[in-house]
Amino acid sequence: MLWFLVRFSWFVLYEVGVTENMLCVWALEIVRVAFIVMSMLRPFHPDDLAELVAYNNAEVPHVSELTFKTGAALVAMAEDVTVAVDGEAMLGFVVAFTPGSEYHSLNYRWFADNLDDFVYVDRIVVLPETQSRGIGRALYAHVGALARQRNGVVACEVNLEPPNGSSMRFHERIGFSEIGQLGGAGKRVAMLVWNVGT
């Protein structure tokens, strides 16, 4: 049913001449609303921390490793931490920042130096066995909704070295584009932005 709604809405919007980028935004908004209605997205709760750290560390080197202490500090600094759930089971999460944070990530600082305003996705993790269920798109749609309350820009980075080709393809499908690169041999990332509008 959810896939039908997305495809039907895409067709209608295309027929009335909406741009491809806005088609992506509308499709993700439909996914976001559907997931909220199905109670699959909710704010982070302190009881989620152990699972968040475990899920995060299963995705190293695509994300930086966390301990219980650094994970707690990360979510305390973040502007938004949202989890995707199925009943009591966590399926994924997103951690987002906005300008003005004391977060010392080099990637976050790069965006702070190069963009006036943004919502920065520090990390987004979805359990591998659930990656075909639209959870990543729903989490990004949530972040896009936050960005539309600001200047409409979502920022993130994706590894080039070591490569993360599946993540890059996923971000390109959503509508992200590269505006720069950071790092050197052995550790280099593409700096991406997604203009969701306001």
Structure description:
This protein is an alpha+beta fold and 198 residues long. The chain has a single domain (41-195), classed as Gcn5-related N-acetyltransferase (GNAT) (Aminopeptidase). It has seven helices and seven strands, in the order H-H-E-H-H-E-E-H-E-H-E-H-E-E. Strands 1-2-3-4-5-7-6 form a seven-stranded mixed beta sheet, sandwiched between helices. Helix 1 (2-15) runs antiparallel to helix 2. It is globular. The mean pLDDT is 87.
Sheet bearing the most strands, described?
A: 7 strands, mixed
The name CATH uses for the topology is Aminopeptidase
What is the level 1 CATH name? Answer: Alpha Beta
H and E string: HHEHHEEHEHEHEE
Backbone structural class = alpha+beta
Strand content: 25-35%
Spans of at least 5 consecutive residues with low confidence: none
- Structure annotation, total helices: 7
In short:
The chain is of the alpha+beta class and 198 residues long. It has helices at residues 2-15, 20-37, 49-57, 68-77, 106-114, 135-148, 165-174; strands at 41-43, 80-86, 89-97, 119-126, 153-161, 177-184, 187-195.
Key descriptive features of the protein:
single chain; 198 residues; alpha+beta; Aminopeptidase; 7-stranded mixed beta sheet; 7 helices
